[in-house]
Each structure stands twice: as C-alpha cells, then as structure tokens.
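In the previous chapter we treated chains in isolation. Here, by contrast, the input contains two separate entities that must be folded as one system, with a combined length of 894 residues.
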Amino acid sequence: MDVLFDIPILGFIFQFLAYLVDAIFTTNLPAQTLQLATPIVLGALCGVLNERSGIVNIGIEGMMLTAAFVGFMAAVVVSDAMPAAEAGIFGFTPALVVGVLAAIGAGMLVSLLHAWLSISVRADQIISGTVINIIALGLTGYLNRLIQPSGSAGTLDPIRPPAALLDLPVLGPVIQMFFTSGPITTSVIIFVIVLQILLFRSRWGLRTRAVGEHPRAADTVGINVIRVRYRNVILGGVFAGLAGAWLTLEFNASFQNGMTANRGFIALAAVIFGRWTPVGAFGGALLFMVWEALGIAIRSDPPPGDLGVFLSGIQATYPSLYNNFFGALPYLLTLIVLAGVVGRSIPPASVGRPYVKEGAT
Amino acid sequence: MTESPSPPVTAPALEMRAITKRYPGVVANDAIDIDVRPGEIHALLGENGAGKSTLMNILYGLATPDSGEILLDGAEVRIGGPSDAIARGISMVHQHFMLVPVMSVADNILLGAETMANPIFLDRKEAHRRIVELGTRFGFQIDPDVPVGSLSVGWQQRVEILKALYRQARILVLDEPTAVLTPQETKEIFVVLRRLADEGHSIIFISHKLHEVLEIADRITVIRRGKVVGTRAPAETNEDDLAALMVGRNVQLVVDRGESHPAGATLVVSDLKVADDRGQESVNGVSFEVRAGEILGVAGVAGNGQEELVEALTGLRKPTGGTVSMGGRDVTGAGPRALQQQGMSFVPGDRHRFGLVLGFSLADNLVLTQYDEPPYVKGLLRDEKAIAAWAKRAIAEYDIRTPSANVNASTLSGGNQQKAIVAREFSRELTVLILDQPTRGLDVGSIEFIHRQVVAKRDEGAAILLVSAELDEVLELADRVAVMYRGEIVAVVDGPTAEREDVGLLMAAGRRAIPPVASDAVAEPGPTATGLS
C-alpha cells in the first residue's frame, strides 16, 4: 500500500481512497451523510409529490424556511409556557412535539397557497414558487428580528433502539447509522420506501401519475384532477414542513435567517437526478451530501501522510477556499445535474401546465 | 324518432329526447332526438361543428343540456359527469386518445376503474388476467405490460375499446374512430366493432366519412346545424344522398377535374434516396417528373416512404443520394426557405406540427411564409395594415370560418385550419405545389372546396405533387398516379383511366400479377396477428 501512496500526484488519489474507506468503516461518515441529506430527501419527496401530479414546485425552499421558523417559534412558546414539563410524549418534550406539528402545519399552509395559485388561479407555477421563496425569506427574517426569540426548546434526541439490535453482526452498524441522529432523520428512510411503493403500486399512485402525465385522460375516466393535485401538493407540504422542523428542532436548536441555505433547490436537483422517484431522489440526496459530510470529517480528522500535509498546506495558504470547498460541492453537483450531464431525464408530461376542464365544444 | 326505418324494433338501450343546448350565440343542439337499440351500430353523421360532439358530451356528462331527457333502458336518468356515465355503462372513445403513453396498457385500462387487492394496492395480476380474457373474447391478443406509447394507433384504439369493456360498458361512443387509422386498420377495427355489436353492445359511431358509415352502420342519423335532418338505413341511401343531407345542398363528391394540359417538366427527381430517422433507406432511388399544369398523385399504404419523400422534396430532410431540380435548376438538398423563394409551396401532412403556429393569430399564420416580403414589411417593421387586409381577403376567398383574423389558430376547427394553410400556400407565386394529405380529417364541404382549389391551381399551370393515404382522393384528382411501395415507385398509371383495384393491388403488393393463391384481396394479417406495429 505504502508503495502506491508514494507515487507522485497519483499517490494522493490512493491516499484519499484509503482515507475514504477508513472513514466509511471507522467513523460516522455514513450516519453524517444520512443526517445532512435528511432535509434534502424530505424536500425531494415534496418535489416528487408535486411534479408527479403535474405541479412544478420551486418553492420548496420557502416552504422549508417558513416551517423551520414557525416550528421553532411554536416550540419556544410552549417551552416558555411550561418550562418544567418533563419529556412525556414518546420521550420528547411537549414543546418539541408542538414545534414539529406546527412546522408541518406551516408547510401544509404554504403548500396550500402554492396549490391555490397554481391550480385554481392557474398562475405561472415558477412565479408562484418564486413568490413563496421571496416572501418566506423576507417574512421570517423580519419576524425573527421583530420577536427576537430568546431561549430554545432544545433538539429532538435520537431514538434508542434496543441494544440487542445494534449488536447484530453486519446489520448492527447499518441500524446504528439510522439511529445516530434524531427521529426525523430516522423516519426518512421509511417515508422513502413507503412513498416509492405507494406511487407505483397503489390506486393513489396510479391516479397521481396519470394526472401528472395526461390530466384530460384522467378526467375522462372520472378522476377529479383538481382534487388529486390539491391533495398531493398539500401532502408535499408535510414533507417540506418536516424538513423545516429538522433544521430548527433536530439539527440546530435555533433559527437563523435564510438557514435553509438553498437546500430546497438541491432537493429539486435530487428529484431530477432520481427521475421523479422517491428512491432515486434519496440516492441523489446522499450523493450530493456525502461531500459535505466528507468535508466535515476531513476538517475534524485530517488524513495522514502526504495528502494531509498537502491539505494543511492549502488550508494555511487559502483558508477560506479550503474551509468552503467541501461545503460548496453539493451545490456544484446540483449545477451539473441541472445542466443535464446525468443524461436526459424526462419529467411528467403535464408538469407546469394548469388543467382546464373541457368546456363548450 | 318514430319513423325509424328498419323493421325489427327492439326497445332502445338509449334514448335522447328533445335535447337542446345553447352556447352564447349558437344553438349547438336543437331538440335532437336519437335512439340506439341493443346490438346496434348507430352512426352519427355530420360536418364539423354540426353538434355531434356536443350531443355526445351531454351523454357523457361533460355538458348539461338546457332541456331534454336521456333514457337508459326506458328509465330517465341524469348524468352528472363522466364517472356517472361510466357507472351507467356508457363509455366514450375520444378522437384524440385518452391514454397515458408512458404507462402500460394495463395501467391505462385500470385507471379510474381499479381492480384492488385491498383498499390500498392494485391487483395487477387479476387485471392482467381480465384484460387478456377480454381481448381474446373480441378477437385480439394484447400484452397488458407494454407501454401504450409503443403501440400503433390502431392498437391504441383497441386499448381504448378495452378500457370501455373493462368498465362493462353497454353503450360505446366512438368519436371519429377512423380519423387516424389507415384503411387497413379501419377494416380491422370494424371487425372488432361488429363483434361487440353481436354481443349486444350498442355502438354510437361518430363520423363524417360517408363510405365508412354506409359500411358499418345499422342506422345513420344525420345532424346539421344542431338538428336531426334525417335517419336512414344504409340500404336505402347512398353517399350522394347522405352528403346532401349533411351539407344541406347537393355536394359534388368528385370534383370535375377536366382535362389537363401539361407543359414542360417543372419538378424533376432522379434516383432520389432518402434515409429515415433510424438511418434506414426508406426512399431507394425514386425518379419521376411533374410537368407544369398536371397533378401527379402518389398513392401508397402509409409508411412506404412517402413521408420521407415529401420531407426531402420540401427541404425538411437531406437526401442521401440523387438529384432534384426545379425549373431546370438543381435544388438538391436546398432548405425550405430557398425552395419557397424559388416558387415551391407546401401543404404539410401534419398541420399542427408543420403547417401552423397554433399560438399565433390566424392573420400571422396567413403570412408565415411571406412575412418578410413586401407588401407585408415596411422597412424593418411589419405592415400591420397590409397583413390585416390580406387576412380579410383570405378569410373571404377561402371561406375560413372564424370570428376574426386575430383569434389564435388553435381555436379554429381542423377544416378551417387547413383552409388557412391552403390560403397561405396557394396565394403565393408558385411553380411547384407539394400537397401532403391535404384533406386528412376534414368534412366533405371542406374537402370539396380544397379539391376545387387544387384543380384551379393546376389549370393555372402549377406542377402539383399530391401525396395522400386516401386512394379515392388520389384517383379523383391526379392526372397521373405513381404508386409507391417499399420506397420505390413501382408503377405510374394514367389518372382518369386508373382502375381502383389495379392501383390497390400495386399499393399492397408492389406488382399487378399476384400468384394464384389470393384472388380479389391482398394478403392481410388479420386483427389477431401481432400486437405491435
């Protein structure tokens, strides 16, 4: 091995691969990736639900941000009202439970606005999404400054699975990976699988896909296109809301302006990367976020050998480039995906087109 | 309908009584009476805009009548919407298929009438079984798992029919079912329809193709301007009678083309080779010439290279070999623009894709090939006045029925869209005119009109190439008929004296003499043959 590492330039790559393998098996890189990917996956599920039923949603970002803010505020208010409340509901404080529910509610409410604008008003859906993003950013920032919340409701603690489960050979570490972070992260994998199955095997899924592809065909067999679209967009809001809750109630314990940091757009890229399937989007989100996780790992535990020397050299010379490089990678990948490098993926045929019932002939 | 002509009177499966529907400014249905018996194929004949679609939309719950009643098996019903209609056993096969191309045959059939394994999940296995069973019963095998988009139009239509049967429809409405089919596919679908009727289904067959209606229907009801103008049995009527009923005046179904006086060869094609999208040579070495003042018809079963030939001649596709010359000048491989400037006009086969910009106004569409030439430009700007003046003239001269020149082309009916294209292309200075399926999907009135214009252009001295899947159209218009078979011209016959059977045989087999096995007809694969085209 060491011989390979000593090859000039190419040695870096071998050293990096060795470090990567080491990180995957000995550190919490997989768990960290899953955790960072959680809001992306949730946002992507929102996107899949929207686009599969024929609605473009670029407002995921704003939905997440609104939910993060509302969820956080609700949690703070409840925790102020009953500061001594013991962890009661499934081991979570009432404040956090209320916060998560409020975040989901906020996500649904903003989705309802998007649904109304896109489906009933038949506004341009890109504009509707943009409006939501702008309003969310401005309004949460303004209210945050206005209220200046003090204190916090804490964060959702990881669920502890039975120790026997974690001690299982092979499976144990995999299970561990899902339970390292909080309950929202843990639940993501369930959402992905359930939605994947429902989308392709259930009546709801069949109708949803038909409405996104050829709404008139669905209409002529008696399916209420408008209702299906409303329902799915609002259901998408649940996931955007959960992504918001993850931001302020699981990953962080506070709200900062614009803290979604364009995760909603990365989620959209994951949707396209995953060809509008939940499992595909999940894969896309992991692929994007593994780089950020890797960046964190490298900074906290730099690789040894020449590679380490080289990296710390860069760190010393270009500190800001070094510190931001890995964090920027998901965005760079997003750009590449959206530019179509991954190959042409074909969206649902009627996406972005409002449905007008056939009137007089 | 008290004076129903055919004697064995059974109780009607469906009766629509005095249906009236008004839209602002127009009475779409004016006290229409119609009844359909079990096991009957009842044709509804009428020009575009006569009110057939409105009547069927009312039956299917898409529109509410202002007055009148609908009776199913003698009991009055109110139909609130498509799902209501379906629940009562009424199904509709729309002219533009209501199928999701990316989904499988089974999923398309299931949609809206899902067979469930439990409250959440579909029972695809059971659905699969029932679809195959239904198909077999009506004489065709279909694989429920293939995506609908990969099927030919004829098979997509069968999927639509299966969709209706899966919902246990007793009354089947088919809206212009043959508009998109080849004559071969039409024959096949007629077999299926007859079988359905024999099993007791009632079929309402909407059409404006007279010979088809005479061939398939048990009774024919003709609608004109929202009113029933007559009901006939096929035995007691003929095409001329029906056309007169439909249009309200005597129609010349066959335009009197007169004698042609061809001059020198204007369009000369020699050894032209053209490849299709997959790179296969679909026109292999075709040579012909079209003289000024004559119509050369190209007959052939669709898919024998006509499409590629037209595209190569009009500059939409680069030929892989051979030469084309126009008026003595070599124009091989020239683009559409250059060809137009040299006097070529083109009426494309797909008016939505190539003929019109549907989102543009009628006036803009009328100058689509001349917008940058005087008198329609002044300096760098459009001359709106000149355009408006021309649009007004075109609307009058070519009988384009439209509320104004400023409506989007998409709002016009097919016949009027086609007239707009004809107006634009025919009004330019031209020496060569290429017509690809110039009357596809049009009603008899429009067909008659366009045919007259074509003959007039010929008499003015244009060299006209007419490509049509309708053999009748080619025989009626062409002075000479070239038959295309597998990318080659297998024969050129004199138009006025051409025998329908002779040309039909050439189209189907590529030669006249057929080995003694088949006598009158061509060896056609039956409807059970294969699923995919």
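Chain A has a mean pLDDT of 88. Residues 44 and 267 of chain A are 5 Å apart (CA to CA). Compare these points with the single-chain example from earlier in the chapter.
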